[in-house]
Amino acid sequence: MRLTFIVIILQISICSYSQVKKLNAETTVQHVTIFSSGARVNRSASVSLLAGRTEINFAGLSNQLDPQTVQLKADANITLLSVQTTKDYLTVRKIEQEEKDLIGHSNECKDKLDLDSKLLDVCKNEESMLIKNQAIGGEAGIKAIDLKESLDLQRARLTEVYGKELEIQKRLISDQQDFDKTKSQLQEISKKKDSVNFIVSALVDSKESLTIRFQLSYNVKDAGWFPTYDVRVNEVTEPLNMLMNANVYQRSGETWKNISLLLSTGNPNDNATPSTLEPWMLGFYDPSVSFRQQGAPGVISGRITDEKNQPVEGASVLIKGLHDGVFTDVNGFFRLQNISKLSSITISRIGYIQKEVAVKPGYLTIALEPSGSGLNDVVVTGYTSELLGNVAGLSVAKDKMYNEEAIQTVAVTTQFQPTTVIYKIDEKYNLETDGKTTTIGIKQFEIPAIYDYYTAPKMDPSAFLTAKITHWQDYHLQSGEISLYFEGTYLGKTYLDLASITDTLALSLGKDNNVKVSRNLVREFSSKKFIGNSRTETKEYEIKVHNTKSVPVTIELVDQFPVSTNKEISVEDIKAPDGEVDKDSGIVTWTLTLSPGQERKLGIGYSVKYPKDKKVVLE
User: Fold this and answer.
1) Reading across the β-sheet that carries 333-339, which strands appear in turn?
2) Which residues of 55-87 are buried (b: 16+ CB within 10 A; e: fewer)?
3) 445 Cβ contact partners less than 8 Å away, ≥ 6 residues apart
4) Please, what's the largest Cα pairwise distance for the chain?
5) pLDDT for 80-89, tens place per residue?
6) Which burial class, exposed, middle or buried, applies to 48 when counting CB atoms under 10 A from its CB (0-12, 13-18, 19+)?
7) What is the pLDDT of residues 562-589, one digit of tens each?
8) pTM score
9) What are phi and psi of 81, to 5 degrees?
């Protein structure tokens, strides 16, 4: 008897031990690593476990969670038997029931609409019959009293019919409004299905009762960051000042409160498999395939924004007249190849007014105007401004000026990984799941640069300032949009494409009106002569370069001689004192150093001989 009692006690103990206990764990976000596309969320939770097996549910996780990236760690010696990721089925069932109720109500509304429409048709037909039946009495006429009774009857019946029609029409309007609301609500329900939160369930086995701290991490999709830069030059004798901004956004479905941010230049969605070459099959060129006849093709890239300089994702960028096009990425950037010199592009997006822009190879920023309600605001943190109490970076859009002393960056620790760079930001941030861009100044430095000017006065009598940076790799820059400022004036935007840069990074800082350039035809030395069957045209130009700045400048000036492609046309008497001539292209280059206030005059001349019955354009 005693043995039987002991066996029963042991069985009860074993069953009690083997029974799986369930509990819910509340997690908090500790830090988030944001990639160029996507983010990794790190949460923690403290859980008190009893000895035996326990199923722990970590609920309320992002609806953008990638189940394949879930990792769970514990700071105690327990056995992790399994980890499973599921959607919150309680919420799913609730949404499905709401959807069923709405579908039923929608069908009722549709039936009421159909019934009232038929009733209205009946009333309309009766009205038509009453109006057509107005001829009474025939040729013999009708007594006055009978006429009065007929008119009274018709008037009463028509009044009753009109009243019913008005009543039905009001019901139809109400029915239609109810039906439309139900359809809209059904659309919202379908959105809720996509936004159902995830639950991570972990089955653990512990030999003793203890309190354990879990670390839960996973990747989310709709988040990221992209860099932009402010480049400022005060004097061509000083280093340029560069501010690197991180533009962070997230629509993960969960709010990140008081978190530490790590910004990684990596992208977990990139293809990790190297490409392989396929056989290169060479064939004859078919001119009918070419669709560019206007000029040599090039590449354009740019960014589509709204009126508040926020990126417009998913905008369609099409080459006019062709089927070539792309969509802008989540940061508003796009890139098109094989763009001819005379092309136009059309940009369109739901909620914005379509825009057509004439383009040429290079970089451009295009702002779309909203066609409906206003768009989200931008949130800027990390540096402040005393200009009109506005945020630095936004105030420049008002007056194109900036307060250099007010620009500050947050404290950032840079970590170098084998293939990526991570910026660890010391400040804490709150990031709402609204897609708004939070701009953080993460790095500011002075970069030594070589400043020189470039001008081609035959095309444009302007001097363009260029900053050339060597050893730019030492600053660990990323490709991104640049806002340029020179001597306190906003010049515009360009794009830093590090994929196409060699050892020297060149930034165009726009026109400098303090360097004057002119190119004029010298009439007394230009002429036309007829000798025999030939005509000779002589052209001579005077080029003036005047430095009105208070500092010396170096300028590269280019011009050109015509190059003959016909044996009946000859270019003779080429003159370009002190210039370097490329005989194949006819390009002439001068490199000048001008002191403050100094002016230099250059000359270029040539003669072209050709048959006098022909015409050659030399302008």
Assistant:
1) 333-339, 298-305, 362-367
2) bbbbbebbbbbbeeebebebeeebeeeebebeb
3) 241, 242, 475
4) 141
5) 888 888 887 6
6) exposed
7) 888 888 888 888 888 989 998 888 899 9
8) 0.59
9) -80, -40
